[in-house]
Amino acid sequence: MSDRAVLLELLAADDALLGPFTPGAHVDLHIGPGVVRQYSLVDVERSAGSYVICVQREPAGRGGSIAVHDSIREGDTVQISLPRDTFGMVEPAGRVVLLAAGVGVTPLVSMAAHLHRSGADFEFHAYARSAPALPLRRHLESAPYRDQLVVHDSSLGDSFRSFAPTGLTQPEEGGAVYACGPEGFVTLARDRALEAGWRPEQFRSERFTPASPTPSGDSSPFTAIAASTGERMAVTPDESIADVLERHGYDTYRSCGQGYCGSCVTRVISGVPDHRDDTQSAEEHSTNSHINVCCSRSLTPVLELDI
């Protein structure tokens, strides 16, 4: 591993085989009461029917990673969600560029493994503050796709901010760019990709934090309706849709609570959402077909949800 990351192999408590997952998928790990964190599933050597996640210790984070490092031990029983994929890989018809910073390598490792098995043309660039700090470094160095991998050591001056990989500057029809890491890294990757001529829909990303603070727009009260029961629920200015739904017994599957992980995205049946998330694209927002219930609100007095 790296100097501050650990791998956890998860097996079913009843010895059943855990199901398959798609490249880029994640699970929610229930660490403690009210503490749920999202971790990508990593395609590395593992027992049949198990899942592997990588958790990097973040002293300045919200406490979830510290709890994992300090409290979870071999043999402990933990609760996880079924795999979900909000960073899904589209089967490419051209070259794929994978860009990762730090622990952002975790979903891209699974993508690289999938691309290698399918014989796709791809390159994988992993950036870290130093070689020992790169999570999964030992696995990457021995991976079957290691010839497509370039590890960039920022301590030696090889940073993404200083130099962009050549593949990113050469857009290709049918290809794609996938980026994962801190906000600054993802934003710069997107800017460079679009400047080089990649189309917006060819760039896909996953962030660890919101791109910007949640907009402080109109927070007027409105009514949320659960389509499955017809129940009408008042959403006040000081609470989220997710707060209200969960209080009334509906599962929302929220993880980050800030609109960047996509776990709580819910289909809208009627009404117009007030989108305040970083998960959906501008095009997706314009359809008003889905809403992040953890942070977004409603522009109409009533919002009916497929829940």
UniProtKB/TrEMBL annotation:
Check the record and name the PROSITE patterns matching this protein: 2FE2S_FER_1, 2FE2S_FER_2, FAD_FR
Q: What is this protein called?
A: PDR/VanB family oxidoreductase
Q: Does the keyword Transmembrane apply?
A: no
Instruction: Please tell me whether the keyword Phosphoprotein is annotated for this protein.
Output: no
InterPro entries from the xrefs? Answer: 2Fe-2S_ferredoxin-like_sf (IPR036010), 2Fe-2S_ferredoxin-type (IPR001041), 2Fe2S_fd_BS (IPR006058), Beta-grasp_dom_sf (IPR012675), FAD-bd_FR_type (IPR017927), FNR_nucleotide-bd (IPR039261), MRET (IPR050415), Riboflavin_synthase-like_b-brl (IPR017938)
Cofactor dependence? FAD
Q: Per its UniProt record, what Pfam families does this chain match?
A: Fer2
PANTHER family (UniProt xref): CARNITINE MONOOXYGENASE REDUCTASE SUBUNIT (PTHR47354:SF1), NADH OXIDOREDUCTASE HCR (PTHR47354)
